Amino acid sequence: MRKLLCLLAATALFVTGCAGAGSFGNGGRTLVIAIDSNPQMKDAISLSSEFEKANPGVHLKFVSLPENEARAKITASTATQGGEFDVVMISNYEAPQWAANGWLENLEPHMKATPGYDENDFIPSIRQSLSYENQMYAVPFYGESSFVVYRKDLFANAGITMPAHPTWQQIADYAAKLDDKNAGVAGICLRGKPGWGESLAPFTTVANTFGAQWFDKDWNAKLTSPEFTQAANFYVNLVRDHGEVGASSAGFSECGTRYAQGQAAMWYDATSMTGTTEDPTSSKVVGKNGYAPAPVEKTQASGWLYTWALGIPKVAKDSGDAWKFMAWMTDKAYAKKVGETYGWNRVPPGTRQSTYEIPQYRDAAKAYAQPTLDGIADANQQKAMVSPVPYPGLQFVGIPEFQDLGTRVSQQLSAAIAGQTSVADALAQSQKYAATVGKSYQEVQG
């Protein structure tokens, strides 16, 4: 049932992919690689000529798209076995589901046949999140949890000390105090952009720690519960009152730019943000930042667990060359290459334990390395949720239908942030969407 639903959703999302994956061009073979257009991937593209030099006859063609577009295109191609791509960038949301559906190549044989690759060097929780039946079907490019970055200078000027473990109410109070519209500085930046992987990522962690559930253990939708309602009102009011201008269309990239330009006192988002906040070539706030754990209300922790990873579609024409590229981009040497070329703050974080043993990286990342590792270690349902749920995932609901359901709910949340609807009406409509999904699981269980 779930496989069929995912196939139908993917087909509905289908956008014609680029032709020529696995094709032989002038002088060799071309691998087509579908990726999310984030800063770390831009570095990989710029370094990719080194892979081509080391692998004569293999040419790389990157299809780089914004997150929502990339997800739709990659899902459509993989689910329909379209064969447009040799390598796809996916996450720990897709990897276990797609592996169960038989859509991905099992990477264990490739890893074991690659000297020095050392899959046991991956951080255990990240490795497990990309596995199905204890076999890895994707390898992580970078991993993350979530935390708060804050301007230490602005906090000091306001006489505020960030607690070691802040609550969301404390964060809201600080945002109100630090909000300075005349100076163009928002109290906090939070995602409001529609997308199940955009605004719903931070919002769902807020919902979790407020005690909310998307579904209870019997698959009853809970989006109008008191806990979910409280979390939604808190999030919407905080970003409307003290968030960035144009919050309803701001995602990770937009918040990153604003914070790096000194236009926000705090930003709650992915721990991978440090590639932006600590980049001396583009950030005006390097050296002014502190990092605190994801804020909580009723739980021990509330951060998410996420990894952008690389997988090989089952229908890829040459998994051997595809794996060579993936191994190059995710092995131990790649972190050193990025650090030596672009600076150690731009090393993809949160995947290999050995990265945190590199002296230059330890020195560059001393403000955020341990908070990143602590967030990843604490990212589990037992610490981050009040009540048991029937689905995997922290910042997402790990079922195929969530791509559509989450997107619909995020649109309602964004409309509430924009003042186009009330929170109550947004949740009432969202509850209808979720109830339909929950009913399909109740019927299967029945």
Automatic annotation (TrEMBL):
Residues 1-21 form the signal peptide. CDD domains: PBP2_TMBP_like. Keywords: Signal. The keyword Endoplasmic reticulum does not apply. The keyword Nuclease does not apply. Pfam families: SBP_bac_1. This is Sugar ABC transporter substrate-binding protein. It comes from Amycolatopsis carbonis.
